[in-house]
């Protein structure tokens, strides 16, 4: 089996940090564009050239980090984002020394708008230090910003409104970015746990597959070889010699861990199936029903273990048909493939004598070990046998590659770890943080509303818009962060639009300045939350309505022309950032899910291949240790006059019986019973061990007593007879029975029924 190119396991935390780094760069670009094109500040404080140069560097640095993010690793990105956050804080702290360059006194004026953008430092801090470090950074930057305004005597209604909106926007970004980063860490931990579980399941699947292949080898090759050798017939010596050589070669392949070399195309598989059919019965009909599209037919690949298992089961089904269907029976093998569904089916049908499947004896290994067990051990494989006396036999072998993958994936946890709804369901702390953030948002809106009302000619209007913002939050819902229903979404957008229209209808011409437009940011933050919760297009529609209403108010003289651009720029930027993050998170989630599936497939493949090789080597070496010297001796029968001694023939019979006991004896294949059975066979006794309680519980203490009791019965059995030792079904009075030359002895370990016969009865 060829291993695919190795890929590192999923590192979703790295991808999340890259996303945040790019987001910080985008915020920096938007801030620079807004400062150059939209913001109009009068009487801005004069600063020394070196400080202005530092402002340019601090604004350009996160853009550079965002460009380098796709090529950088986690440690480098943490350091770069940490430098971004620290440089922003140092820039604010350096304002006081910068003002001291003026010898007379600190110049008056307003703080440059770019220095009040706290969201940039917050996003970078989340990427560098996580949620706690980001909260500390936001607190430090906010205090420094307030100190700068105190130093400049820049505490005005407009600055209060601006800083409130800046800080609350930064808080929302902090919560959102922290959710993404923490989700990525949890996802990585989940992937590690899932990978370990996947490897364990792959190992168990490989163990079953290897066991089935070993059992099939025992049945198809070894048992018949030993049975022929036990007859010690000169007419069979050449056949025995060739089969012994073939068995040794197959054991060598397994001992070396050699498996199928590569995937098999459908055409190659069909050719192999046709060849096996012709070898078993030259008169049999082989029919292939491929896909209608030749390209799909040629591109259909079959897992190598599936191909090997299916062809082995096909060979055994044909051998059974030739041996048991009766003379004159015709056989048809049909292969059906479907590349799109990654599925194929083999049916082997004959019109022979048939048999009653319900009456099939448990010791008939041709069907149980070489057909049914083979396919049951194969992931995605199924097999069934349909037959009736006089109506022929149908064997259906089926393999589905998509089912094989689905079985491995169905127990894996959901991969929607970047989904806010997943976080709500699994992280109460995150939901609590979101609720606290919502409450803080509602409370913070009071300050700009009261400030605007205090300086407005229509103070009641500011309070009405505050009520509108609160109603919009309540309509959206803050107890849950799942995707809101369409009715909630429509109500939220309608309330936001009505709040803006309220200012348009009731505001006096020229009465609304920048400080009075605080409600635009409040309404926009509600639309921001709507976009993050999965309703991007309704949020954009609400932003469009908000923009149109504001523009209509400006044309009617409601706003001062100098305040219109900056009043609407922040809402547009906020919703744009929210929508961009929502889309980016969705794309990250899809890409992460695909990468995780690929990573788990690699883990599954490597673990399966490694475990298969180990299990095959282990089973082959055990068989080699038991049969190796005898197989070498059997190969020598090809020489003239070669023959086996009576002891060697008896040993062949004993080993043949021992191998049968492994598969039909079940739990009875344990010491000291196996040793007693081998000893009895060497004395010419035909021993059969049957576990008829397969799948039914038997107490370990009872089983140990049964095994010891059966071993004693075999030791006392007369030479040359027949002994059948059975573990009985649970509906019987007794646990086990030993029938020696027609005389039955029962082991009564269960509580006897009141109507139980007083004498042992013969168990059929």
Automatic annotation (TrEMBL):
Keywords: Kinase, Membrane, Transferase, Transmembrane, Transmembrane helix. Coiled coil: none annotated. SUPFAM superfamilies: ATPase domain of HSP90 chaperone/DNA topoisomerase II/histidine kinase. GO terms for molecular function: kinase activity. InterPro entries: HATPase_C_sf, HATPase_dom. It comes from Herbiconiux ginsengi. This is Signal transduction histidine kinase. Residues 312-398 form the Histidine kinase/HSP90-like ATPase domain. The chain crosses the membrane at residues 16-38, 50-71, 83-104, 134-152, 436-454, 460-478, 490-512, 518-536, 543-562, 568-588. The lineage of its organism: Bacteria, Bacillati, Actinomycetota, Actinomycetes, Micrococcales.
